[in-house]
Amino acid sequence: AQTVTQSQPEMSVQEAETVTLSCTYDTSESDYYLFWYKQPPSRQMILVIRQEAYKQQNATENRFSVNFQKAAKSFSLKISDSQLGDAAMYFCAYKETSGSRLTFGEGTQLTVNP
Amino acid sequence: DTGVSQDPRHKITKRGQNVTFRCDPISEHNRLYWYRQTLGQGPEFLTYFQNEAQLEKSRLLSDRFSAERPKGSFSTLEIQRTEQGDSAMYLCASSQNSRAPPDTQYFGPGTRLTVL
Q1: Which one of A84, B3, B22, B103 counts the least CB within 10 Å of its CB?
Q2: What residues of chain B lie within 8 A of the CB of A98, using their CB?
């Protein structure tokens, strides 16, 4: 079974600085998708960024970028120029290309200090 | 706003009672998912529909749980004879069966269930 591990339960960053959240996963599949979701205190899960495993180029979305290391099964999220609104729980998630379910990590609580 | 909606947002019930939650997906999405999230944890998959067909169920979905999606539109999740361990946030998500962009799931606000 696929597993997703987020080894940092909590992280903090100063406003305007950069922070990296870690995620590792275990799978025997060669084609899959990876996602980062953000869940603010209001608790609605919001998609931050997604990566297709067959693409070598790392995905970027404005201030958010990933470092996808397929061989190492690592998928970290970098947030640049952190803003107060970035404070939330961040979940890494995995999905098989042919599958339906998302498998989530345990989450990383990000605090942004003014 | 045409995002995923869920009703009710909060439900408090007594142990042993039945509860039903509703999810309305994004209108053009043919896939619908239910997840359960306990405090401080990531969501766990419960079940998945493509149109009106329930194609996958997690072993977490005990026989007290049943989900339906009549006519492939909204979905309901019913829990019978609730137990205190059922207290959680129940999240619904929907997606469009497409590879471009990847089959991305969009989540609703959730229904928080408290069983007393």
Answers
A1: A84
A2: none
